[in-house]
Every structure is written in structure tokens, then in C-alpha cells.
Amino acid sequence: MIFTIFIHRLKEWGFERGWGDTTGRVKDTIRIFSEILQASDLVNLEELFNRVPKIFNVVIFSIHGYFGQADVLGMPDIGGQVVYILVRVRALEDELLLRIKQQD
Q1: DSSP 59-92
Q2: Contact status, residue 21 vs residue 4, Cβ threshold 8 Å
Q3: Helix (H, G, I), strand (E, B), or coil: what is residue 26?
Q4: pLDDT tens per residue across span 2-61
Q5: Cα torsion for 91, 97, 103, 104, to the nearest 10°?
Q6: Side-chain-facing half-sphere of 68: CA atoms under 13 Å
Q7: Cα(104)–Cα(102) distance, rounded to whole angstroms?
Q8: Which of 26, 27, 78, 93 would disulfide-bridge 19, Cβ 3.0–4.6 Å?
Q9: Which of 83, 65, 66 is nearest to 75 (CA)?
Q10: Could you tell me which residue ranges the Sucrose synthase first GT-B domain spans (predicted)?
Q11: Phi–psi pair at 43, nearest 5 degrees
């Protein structure tokens, strides 16, 4: 409830969503941005850019059978490569969704 009021107040002041998903995170992001405007330095720039989601779409391409193996191109995988890539994709998706959620 309080965060909703806070978001509406920010919108009245001209700020769009994306500064953070909690009042503390919004406050930190605005503080970092303010410091950059006053006197930019690499530490604050890096911290601000680390908060902003930059990747929204990912294409996964498995090279199974293309390199280092003979006569496997077109052959079915025994499951290891498929399971591995699915686990990695799920972890990547979870991380991307978390970062997008944190920016509201």
C-alpha cells in the first residue's frame, strides 16, 4: 500500500517506473543517479548500469555434434546435453526475471 502511494507520488513528479521494486531500492538508485549528475565517477556509473536490466531476449544455440566429434551430426543426443542446456537456460531465465523485477 505504502509503495503504491510512493510510486504514484514519483509519477506525479515525472518519474516513470523502473527505479526499483522497493522504496529503499528506489532511494538508492536516485542517490546514485544524483551523484553521477553532480560528479560522475566510474564506481557510481558501474553501480547504476548494473541495476538497469539490459538483456530481455536470449537465443540459445547448442553446438552438440558440430565440433570435436565424428559421425554424430544428426544423431540423437543421449540426454546429457539437452538436460544441461535446459538447466542453464532455466537458471538464466530466473536471473533475468529477478533483475527485471528488482527494477519494477
Answers
A1: -----TTTSS-SS-TTSPP-SHHHHHHHHHHHHH
A2: no
A3: helix
A4: 778 888 888 888 877 778 888 888 888 888 888 888 888 888 888 888 877 677 777 777
A5: -150
A6: 2
A7: 5
A8: 26
A9: 65
A10: 44-103
A11: -65, -50
Q: Which three cell numbers stand for residue 43?
A: 564506481
Indicate the domain borders of the chain. 1-52, 55-104
CA 72 to chain centre: 36
Residue 29, burial from CB neighbour count under 10 angstroms (0-12, 13-18, 19+): buried
Q: Angle formed by the axes of helices 23-38 and 2-12, to 10°?
A: 30
- Neighbour-count burial of 26, counting CB atoms closer than 10 A to its CB (0-12 exposed, 13-18 middle, 19+ buried): buried
Cα-based torsion angle of the residue sequence 72, 76, 81, 83 in order, rounded to the nearest 10 degrees: 180
Query: What pLDDT does residue 74 have?
Result: 65
